[in-house]
Amino acid sequence: MIESLFSRIESKREELISFTQDLVRIPTINPPGKDYIKCAELLGNRLAKSGFSLIYERANNSPGDSDRYPRHNVIARIEGQHSGPCIHFNGHLDVVVPGRGWTVDPFEGLVQDGKIYGRGTCDMKGGLSAAVIAMEAILEENIHFPGAIEISGTVDEETGGYGGVAFLAEKGFFSKPRVDHVIIPEPLNVDRVCLGHRGAWWAEVETFGRIAHGSMPFLGDSAIRHMSAFLELLESRLFPALDKKQTSMPVVPEGARRSTLNLQAVHGGEAESFDGMPSPCVPDSCRLIMDRRFLIEENIAEVKAEVTSLLDELADSRLNFRYQIRDIMEFLPTMTDADAPVVQAVSSALKNILGKTPEHIISPGTYDQKHIARIGHLHDCIAYGPGILDLAHQPDEYIVIDDMVTAAKVMAASTLELLGARS
């Protein structure tokens, strides 16, 4: 049965390439969230031809949702011959902006040297395409299976996942008894199983000043200078402290096995969108966006206190220092047990196909497993996909076609094991 199934997947190689190209050629750039319905319908229409039933769900009033950029998701399901568990493959449809530095068209889907190039090939339309081909091959082989198979195409993963997996999890799409096992084809390399991710806390710090004429700054109070004092404390105190925090989680790459802080953006004074020449004003506001990634050994309250203690110190020691801090989002670290059924099934399939024991890893950044765990309370969930992690969000992003074929075989074999299928 397995040999015939793998041969079927090999025979669908050109379909795998062309479907990936079709997905990539729809520029689902987020933000703002372009062409979601077009991409969801492409996925849904293909799965419907194999007998999947479809549900389209718009995440009304979720962040970014509007009539111009509606947040449309698709969930496809096919029932087996009798009752049993359900395995769900979830892929996000959105991609980040192409950015500068490309040497090929980011939305052409160029095939060259055994690779498909384009924004989203690696992260993660190639992985989603591999899951589709794998499930089609099972159906075409007429393999009887109990339970059900689901495939979803969801939105907004790149901006937190609130209009996608979080919205669907709130509606019960990622909870038992509907779903038992979840595989997310994120690009964590074809020979590794990702058990989870570090925690994340995003926050905005705003410092305040007093507006005055720029030629007489002594009559005002610069919010930017206040922010610079905070930035100096981050540099001299917090960054060195974070470098010393190490984790037992198998996070990749090695540099992410410690706590990190990214200063995402700074906005102060004259608005970035002004036309013409700037006016001479002392800035009365400065805002800093912070992206803090933390470890399973850390407590979220302590993570926040490390920042607020520095701000409070400045409020006590620096003349007229005033601030406010606003949480943007926060997610705790998550790590599926290595003995969980989905981990064991995928690991076994990888060992049989590649001939080596796969590495179990943790992602440096969060992905939609966070919503499945915290909202759906479903913990038999991993990320497994064919993309190369380091290529995500890079110019000239690509996916290796052979890796997609291998991943499809792993997904198919894992599905049969988890469902208890027979020929």
TrEMBL record:
Q: Which SUPFAM superfamilies match?
A: Bacterial exopeptidase dimerisation domain (SSF55031), Zn-dependent exopeptidases (SSF53187)
The coenzyme or cofactor needed here is: Zn(2+); Co(2+)
* Every Peptidase M20 dimerisation domain range: 196-315
The answer to whether keyword Metal-binding applies is: yes
The keyword Metal-binding appears for this protein = yes
Q: Which UniProt keywords apply?
A: Cobalt, Hydrolase, Metal-binding, Zinc
Any one Gene Ontology molecular-function term assigned to this protein's record:
hydrolase activity
Signal sequence, start to end: none
What family does the database annotate? Belongs to the peptidase M20A family.
Cross-referenced PANTHER family, in alphabetical order?
Answer: ACETYLORNITHINE DEACETYLASE, ARGE_DAPE-RELATED DEACYLASE
The protein's name: Peptidase M20 dimerisation domain-containing protein
Species name: marine metagenome
Q: What is the lineage of its organism?
A: unclassified sequences, metagenomes, ecological metagenomes
